[in-house]
Amino acid sequence: MQRLQHLQQHVAPGAAAEEENWLSAERRASLEEAPSGLRLTLHDSMEELPMDAPGKTWARINIPYSDNRAGWGTKFVPACLVNGDQPGQSALLMAGNHGDEYETEIALMKLARDVDPATVVGRLIIIPVLSMDAAHAFARCWPEGSGSEGTNFNRAFPGAPDGDTAGLLAHYISHVLFPDVDVVFDLHTGGNSMAMFPCAHMHLLPDDEQRNAMLESMLAFLTDTVFIYMDVRHTITLGVRVAFF
Ligand SMILES: [Zn+2]
To answer: Which 8-state DSSP code applies to residue 85?
Structure first.
């Protein structure tokens, strides 16, 4: 009876005014920041993971998903959050943007496994496999995409809070994770169509400060070759300038 009265109270006209009884202020704020509803949680529960959790924590991003197997299903994107013993800048490292570029996924899985928070200055957010489905399928474009060729996740940004799996994840990454970090590394290789030699890439952006910071980050990889992309209308890569050192 008590439960019924509680429910009636919240479905009554004007119940919206009572909404604070349903959601804590912190939870409401986190939902407003991430309107897609995606969250970073512990890897084995739905408990939300604060970004400043000390040490190394295995985590996952939860994506609501509905198909013929489950109406209220969830897709999990594995992640590893590392807050170093010393404060500093923060970096997001991602792999598996294209599911057939497995070297990048292995590299970040090794990094996540081996990294010792005692040696880290600042924060690392490591996402070794952006799409488990694409990785399992060895597919450049994600099989869960709506097009006949799947979704090219690299073209899904900035995403949409009401998009498909790729759109939701892109929205979460660009609206929640990007603002939280100083630098983003998105690791690629040639996939099943190309053989790539070690190289670092960046896009030319109009903001001088950001462009210089990107240049510095790119050169920090100490590769013999770098690629610089020029974009047209934010969607088409028109030209690539390759520099050899
Ligand atoms: Zn790629």
So the answer is: S
Cα(47) to ligand 1 centroid in Å equals 32
How far away, in angstroms, is 104 Cα from ligand 1 center? 9
Distance from residue 194's CA to the centre of ligand 1 (Å): 10
The structure's pTM equals 0.83
Question: How many whole angstroms separate alpha carbon 99 and alpha carbon 132?
Answer: 8
Per-residue pLDDT of the chain (245 residues; tens, 9 = 90+): 566 666 666 566 555 555 555 666 776 666 565 567 788 999 998 899 999 999 999 999 999 888 888 888 899 999 999 999 999 999 999 999 999 999 999 999 999 999 999 999 999 999 999 999 999 999 999 887 556 668 889 888 899 888 888 999 999 999 999 999 999 999 999 999 999 889 999 888 889 999 999 999 999 989 998 888 877 655 555 556 666 66
> Which ranges in the chain are annotated with CATH 3.40.630.10?
37-196
Rounded distance, CA 46 to CA 28, Å? 16
Fold of 37-196: Aminopeptidase (3.40.630)
Q: What residues pack around ion ligand 1 (CB closer than 5 A)? A: 98, 101, 188
CA of 133 to the centre of ligand 1 (A): 15
Helix (H) or strand (E) holding 11: helix 2-11
